[in-house]
Specification:
Layout (H helix, E strand, L loop, with lengths): L8 E4 L4 E5 L2 E6 L4 E6 H9 L6 H11 L4 H17 L3 E4 L1
Antiparallel strand pairs: 1-5, 2-3, 3-4
Helix pairs in contact: 2-3
Length: 94
């Protein structure tokens, strides 16, 4: 799978089931029988993937909500989105 780009519009896989457990979130994908363990920040990113907002839009929203080191935050968000895509929890529309 190609790397996610800033103008991509990720959309969460609606067949994934999300369950919160303490400080972790489980995303279970019945299509590939995979369970992905993510933190609450990654869960927020997954929930923002609605197919309407670009990756750049998602990054801006999170940077606005959590001001700080924007370069590190940007890279963390990109890494999270790529991980979600590799595990078929999100797909990309352009």
């Amino acid at each position: 799978m190609a790397e996610i780009k800033l103008d991509d519009k990720p959309i969460r896989n609606e067949s994934c089931h999300m369950e919160e457990l303490d400080d972790e979130v489980l995303l279970y994908n019945p299509a590939n029988n995979k369970t992905l363990y993510i933190n609450k920040s990654a869960s927020l990113i997954w929930q923002l993937c609605n197919g309407e907002q670009s990756v750049e839009d998602i990054i801006k929203m999170i940077q606005d909500a959590y001001p700080g080191n924007n370069d590190d935050l940007r890279q963390d968000i990109m890494n999270t989105l790529n991980n979600l895509a590799e595990n078929e929890a999100v797909s990309v529309s352009q």
